[in-house]
Specification:
Elements lengths: L4 E2 L14 H10 L4 E7 L9 H5 L7 E2 L2 E10 L11 H5 L3 E5 L11 H11 L7 E2 L11 H11 L2 E5 H4 L9 H15 L3 E4 L12 H9 L12 H20 L4
Parallel strand pairs: 1-2, 2-4, 4-5, 5-6, 6-7, 7-8
Antiparallel strand pairs: 3-4
The structure holds zinc ion (ZN) (2 copies).
The site of one zinc ion has 5 residues, from loops.
Length: about 250
């Protein structure tokens, strides 16, 4: 399986990555990506960017050297009620919003029940598109509940390439956790997204560890957000409508 987009990458602006927008674009071209999402961390991560930076993401052009650029963020879930660490106004100006649990943030993380509740509540946020690294063993969740909620809320669970690297400390069970939620996802029609979580240009567009896993489990391509240009463009076109509908139902 070959994917057309890397939907999770960082630049120097996030405070702990090593490459620039220009370097990541060049790397995306080398990896034959058509779309690149730049998803900087939320402000409550230690050393993370100020929220002004996330408010300024739109200064990055939507197309650079033929690559479609999605100006996004990887926010932090900071409470058990699923609160994300960016205001609604700034969130509304982003093309793509990821969120997940991260060490060092205010989220207390008191175990599986609380993590599941936090993740499921976060998925009700109208602006959220993707749950970043839901496989993280440091934040165990009930995948049955999480998958059901994701299907209902039309949220993608991420296959995070960085989690699949055995060299990533603390993510040793990442692969098995991905297999667990993919097995449920196949039955339930769970939408998923793939991201490198690159913190340096050399990792941008390097999605083979994830595509290998998806091939192994025979995951339906139509459920993979970055499988085809048309599928991704349709999602982006329909996105404002989904946000509006959820806002009207009174989430925020
Ligand atoms: Zn992350
Ligand atoms: Zn990340």
């Amino acid at each position: 399986m070959k994917l057309i987009a890397d939907l999770h990458t960082h630049t120097v602006a996030c405070g702990h990555a090593f490459s620039t927008v220009e370097e990541n674009i060049r790397a995306a071209r080398r990896a034959e990506m058509l779309v690149l999402a730049i998803t900087e961390h939320g402000p409550s991560l230690p050393g993370g960017p100020h929220h002004y930076l996330l408010g300024a993401m739109s200064t990055i052009p939507a197309y650079i050297e033929g690559i479609r650029v999605l100006r996004g963020a990887e926010l932090n879930i900071i409470s058990s009620s699923g609160k994300l660490d960016l205001d609604q106004d700034r969130m509304s100006r982003l093309d793509l919003v990821l969120a997940g649990f991260h060490a060092g943030t205010p989220y207390p993380g008191n175990g599986r029940d609380e993590n599941t509740q936090a993740l499921c509540s976060a998925m009700e946020n109208p602006y959220l598109d993707i749950i970043a690294h839901p496989d993280n063993p440091a934040y165990p969740v009930d995948y049955k509940e999480v998958v059901q909620k994701a299907v209902t809320e039309e949220i993608h669970l991420e296959i995070n390439v960085s989690s699949l690297k055995t060299s990533h400390p603390g993510r040793e069970n990442g692969r098995q956790n991905c297999l667990d939620f993919l097995a449920l996802g196949k039955k339930e029609g769970l939408p998923i997204a793939v991201g490198s979580d690159a913190h340096i240009s050399y990792a941008v567009g390097e999605l083979q560890a994830a595509t290998k896993l998806l091939d192994e489990v025979n995951y339906p391509p139509e459920l993979i957000l970055n499988y085809s240009r048309e599928g991704l463009e349709t999602f982006l076109e329909k996105r404002p409508e989904r946000v509006k509908k959820k806002l009207e139902s009174g989430f925020l």
